[in-house]
Amino acid sequence: xxxxxDRARDGEITPQMSxxxxxxxxxxxxxxxxxxxxxxVIYGNPQRDARVVGIGKGLRTKINASIGTSPDIIDFDxxxxxxxxxxxxxxxxxxxxxxxxxxxxxxRLVLDATTLTxxxxxxxxxxxxTINKKGSVVHMEADYLFEIIEKQAAEGIxxxxxxxxxxxxxxxxxxxxxxxxxxxxSRGGSFLTAWMNHNKRENPLYDQIDRLIDIMxxxxxILSLGNGLRAxxxxxxxxxxxxxxxxxxxxxAEYAQxxxxxxxxxxxxxxxxxxxxxxxxxxxxxxxxxxxxxxxPITTDVAPGYDHITxxxxxxxxxRYGADFICYVTPPEHLALPKPDDVREGVIAAKIAxxxxxxxxxxxxxxxRDLKMGIARRDLDWNTxxxxxxxxxxxxxxxxxxxxxxxxxxxxxxxxxxLKGVREYYEEDLNGSxxxxxxxxx
Length: 442
Ligand code: SF4
Prior knowledge:
51% helix, 21 helices, TIM Barrel, eight-stranded parallel barrel, alpha/beta, binds iron/sulfur cluster, globular, two-stranded antiparallel sheet, 442 residues
């Protein structure tokens, strides 16, 4: 089957490209050209109708919300609710990452409950299926793993995080540098590391890359090259094992793109803010500006309960330096499985971060929203403030809970509202030709 990448290279503008163009307010040709260069990806799996968004160079930073059961908390209704809240709050994509209960069933329910493009990590279903049947992931058969990958692709999954970059060379780097302060935190990474170390064999997702690419191509699934050796503590950031995995992923990316498969490269988990720019530059340089999917990044390890904030700081900087896709983090990260309210908080934090980064990355196209808000605040135009806010519902709720005595002010300063009080001294500016309004300023 011809993928969106094949078609873009043929010069064709597909309906999906037009849909992505509309979403980002760019031309369909801009999307086509970006896809042809391997710098933008879009949903292309014909097995399911889903909302198409473009991820990549020149586009707004997109947000992914990850949901899913764990072996300890298996509540399908809650996962469906989380999917719906993520979509309603403004996530651009959803990853269904269940590891508990009937994984095929919860995935089916989630796919039915959302219009978003859905991503998965098929290794989870294969590894946990093997553990349930044979007692340990080390007994996983490669054929079974590929069977699960194809089964999920046929269900209409849009992108799959697949850990091709953990190969024997990467593990050797990890061994030589010594074990990490934060251990191995990627579930996919730890499954594969255990399997390879026990079986003394190469990772089948690397060893049989053509088999994997054949499936991705058949269903036009975006191959998201997983970061199985991402740092789980800031003291492990940007180490040799992580960079080795990135090198292998970049090689796989180039090969997959040559064969017509759309790819994304995933990025480092915990990193201090002064290493974010370097990580983006290295990834972009090594993968010919392929879309970069940042997991977090979490910028300090000492704020459990507030990791939506530690990661939003990292996400804003990542986006500012050129990352294209952000995986949200929720407040209970490192502590517990997120609940629906946590999903809402995570999506909002990531959206704010993406906007902050995009203000610099994309300039006035994004920054004009802030200009509109600035003017609306000056003019005490509350309705426009709500309309312009990323967080409209919350903003309105807070003001309504504490109504001011004078309608046009707020209870922060009340009768001594500085904006209102100073107006009479700027009568000429406000009433004359020098007044700036939304229409003249934007
Ligand atoms: S009362 Fe104070 S905080 Fe509220 S709008 Fe006026 S200046 Fe701003």
